[in-house]
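User: Can you help me understand a structure? I only have the sequence.
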Amino acid sequence: MKIRELRELSVDELKQKELDLKDQLFKLRFQKSLGQLDNPMKLSNIKRDLARIKTLLKEFQTKGTE
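Assistant: Let's start by predicting it. Here is the structure, written out as tokens:
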């Protein structure tokens, strides 16, 4: 997911997306431990998207306190 797409979402939508990605990450890690993971790049892509969302949420939080 691109950062431009994420910037268009509201804070609530970003928080929901963060929860969804955390759930997906858990499931993929579980699949990896069982040796059933088809595409290992999915893990890094989800981690990257999660980091982008957390960065945006932090950015919104700091803008709100100024």
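Now, to help you interpret it: The mean pLDDT is 93. Residues 14-58 form one domain. Let me know which part you'd like to focus on.
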